[in-house]
Design goal:
The protein is an alpha/beta fold and 302 residues long. 37% of the residues lie in helices and 23% in strands. The chain has two domains: 167 residues, Rossmann fold; 113 residues, 2-Layer Sandwich (GMP Synthetase, Chain A, domain 3), CATH 3.30.300.20. β5, α4 and β6 form a beta-alpha-beta unit. α6 runs antiparallel to α8.
Amino acid sequence: MTTRAGFAALIGEPNAGKSTLLNRMVGAKVSIVTHKVQTTRARIRGVALEGESQIVFVDTPGLFRPRRRLDRAMVAAAWGGAADADVVLLLIEAHRGITEGVAAILDSLTEKAESRRIALAINKIDRVEAPALLGLSQEMNARFPFVETFMISAERGHGVDDLRRWIAGEMPEGPWLYPEDQIADLPMRMIAAEMTREKLTLRLHQELPYELTVETEGWEERKDGSARIDQVVYVARDGHKGIVLGKKGETIKAVSTAARAEIAAFLDRKVHLFLTVKVRPNWLEEAERYSEMGLDFREGDT
């Protein structure tokens, strides 16, 4: 029996559907999925099995024009994820076509492509008519020599099985990199923090786009099989603390309830979750915060 194992990087603009595709491929929720752009901060690896192949997916932060240190570190992480991969998959949205951002990514791919196998996945195909899809595919392939093009809907699962089978066949021969039952190489502490951050993001909508991060400070395994998890929500300003807490603590209570339920379902056991909100005005400039997010602080230097 010949086994295969390797890395597949998902790149694209923010909100192109990379996290949704990763979760669909892996069959579990390992990457934060919200309607907000730039929610994936670290390179999250999900592990999928297809036949005798083990595919380690690298879900990179969305590629965009960076303005702040955090933005620059995220974009560096995205290209770093692509550089380490055996296969790179560029994901674009069918209904948006070749945006300014997609054109910039194509230019960068031309510079960084080397001998790597790069495929195109046109996502959200249910939003456009077939002739428009064909035209978009032809135009993209005229701009860059993709080895394959796939039409998919990550949300509905259309075309995803064919894509996974192709990626599996592209993996180099070799032993599996992770145990058969492992679906992510992120520490559980970080996955739990991401789940809480997702609930905050969904609850607060436009109020706190990026000035907020969540860290798991404590994790205690209890004798009854449950886990006590202590997390800190860091915000940049005093005014933000009130927003996160909400009137009479209603917001943080709702977030805690939703996050606890999701973490417990993921772990398949009871969880006691305790959230604290702290103000750290300069957390966006603290190297330690970046390490917790799996980012390189130095990559944010101009």
